[in-house]
Amino acid sequence: DSPAIHKRRNAADRPQRPLPEGLERNRVIGRPSCLHGHEPMRRIRSIHSSRLGSNAIPCEIVNTFLDLVGAVSPALVIIPAMPHRWKPNVTVAALIERDGRFLLVEEETTDGLKLNNPAGHLDPGESPIQACAREVLEETAHDFEPTALIGVYLNRFTKTRTGDDITYLRFAFAGTLGTHHDWRTLDTGIVRTLWLTPDEIRACPERHRSPLLLRGLEDYLAGQRFPLTLVHTDISVTEPDGVTAR
Questions:
Q1: Amino acid 82: pLDDT
Q2: In whole angstroms, what separates CA 110 from the centre of its chain?
Q3: How far is CA 117 from CA 12, 105, 138, 212, 246, in A?
Q4: Residue 101, beta-bridge partner list
Q5: Number of Cβ atoms within 10 Å of the Cβ of 129
Q6: What is the tens place of the pLDDT at every residue in 133-166?
Q7: CB neighbours of 152 closer than 8 A, spacing ≥ 6?
Q8: For residue 58, what pLDDT is reported?
Q9: What tens digit of pLDDT does each residue of 11-35 get?
Q10: Rounded to two decimals, what is the model's pTM?
Q11: Which residues fall within 8 angstroms of residue 188, CB to CB, at 6 or more apart?
Q12: What does the alpha-carbon distance between residue 141 and residue 182 come to, in Å, rounded to a whole number?
């Protein structure tokens, strides 16, 4: 073997040095065979400054890092890490009417007892329609079959205890209430279920866990309905074998 090959092997065996702030080691990929010497380093510096604009990592950090890795493998290709992406919390809710009254739950929160539709978060591997049926069963001990979409709603909420700033994306459904399973224990935090008239719900906004409780009610009473086919869930969500590699 040539001295150069021994030098590269010895360098590769050395412990990796810590990366400068702003770079992640697992974003260092590739070793193109067509690139040799320090040309890749010059190309990376040029690409970084010309294509990334204001989102680029400061040049002095990039140059320092490239100088560090250059002695080990001059042909490394650096891809900047993706920034953190904001995402809303997806929830579902059921608007259930019987004889002019609506089924609500009274639940414990950090702000005391609050009223809400039977509602909850979308779980992995289920559609919003399936999630709604599950939440109604868990919180009220009733079977429930969604028959129409009332609306899709977005609201922002700050938790009193932690100060967390959370945005919720809610799918609200109307449907048919089925069998009551009185042997079931209600979900954690649910104190009781109750049936209230629209006027009784409107009269206590301070007790609502979400402003979407009243907004969904008014949309329901106004006759707003959309077909369930409006909410499509791909097979890749509900059946693991249906996931397509990309």
A1: 60
A2: 23
A3: 60, 6, 12, 9, 38
A4: 98
A5: 19
A6: 999 999 999 999 999 999 999 999 888 888 889 9
A7: 169, 170, 171, 172
A8: 60
A9: 445 555 555 555 444 444 343 333 3
A10: 0.67
A11: none
A12: 7
* CA distances, 89 to each of 132, 135, 151 (Å): 15, 15, 16
More confident residue, 66 or 147: 147
Q: Is 147 helix (H, G, I), strand (E, B) or coil?
A: strand
- Give the up-direction half-sphere exposure of residue 128: CA atoms within 13 A in the CB hemisphere: 24
- Following CA atoms 212, 215, 218, 222 in sequence, which dihedral angle do they give, to the nearest 10 degrees? -110
CB 61 within 8 A of CB 20: yes
Q: What is the DSSP letter of 196?
A: E
Q: Which two tokens stand for residue 46?
A: 């040029």
DSSP state of 225: -
pLDDT of 61 above 90: no
CA dist., res. 23 & res. 6, Å (int): 28
More confident call, 82 vs 7: 82
Task: Let me know how long the chain is.
Answer: 246
- Residue whose structure tokens are 């205890």: 161
Tokens of 154: 């977005």
Tokens 């429930």, residue located: 144
